[in-house]
Amino acid sequence: MKLFYSPFHTFIHKVLVTAHEAGLWDQITFVPTYPYKNLQGEDQGERYSIAELNPLDKVPTLALDDGQVVYGSQAIVECLDSLGKSESRLYPPEGPERWDAITRLALGDTIFETTVVLVMEGWQPEAEQRIGVFEWIWPKIIRGLDRLESSCAKGFKRFDIGQASMLHAISYMDFRTRFYDAKDPLYPDFDCFENRPNLQSWWKEALERPSVKAHYQRPFEGDDSAEFLRKNVEEVLAAQGRQG
Description:
- The protein is mainly α.
- The protein is 50% helix and 6% strand.
- A four-stranded mixed beta sheet has the order 2-1-3-4, sandwiched between helices.
């Protein structure tokens, strides 16, 4: 299998967590991909494109050995979990526990996605920032974190896909405040753990999982060139009986 993904390990990728938890880590070729370089309009950016495999030209994108391509992180984690060699699945069997897990998956993913919107808006010159965007998004994030605090207070029977998404979202919020030169007019130094002791306790424990330590805060080691990406795209196309 080949996973085309963003090789920034300063936040936790739920797809990488799932791959590790599923026992598939050593069966995956990790292909660093930089879709944002396509915005530069340069040849280098075009060579980083995976649009032939994923019409959205987005990461993550998973290519199976037979050439089938799965994209969209929620589709990928379900695919990896179904192929997993581990006895314990991240998706619980049908029933209340499953619906709780996939609801937290959706909540964590939405917190992550809306945080990305805040970052991009914060990149704009202060005079051009749309305050309404911040006023619309922040209450959603705060209510979402409060709901996760309640979930952590109740506890979990086992590690599940919802927690993988929670790790993704919360680590990115921390990444936002530490690394992005983005100015947020409402909460420039937001601390998601403030007044949420159960969420913080869960976070500290979850960071010790091997599936997190396998990549989190560990620089990518390998080939991240456009040539390497192109080689892997061509191999997927060949498996599909196509040529690039």
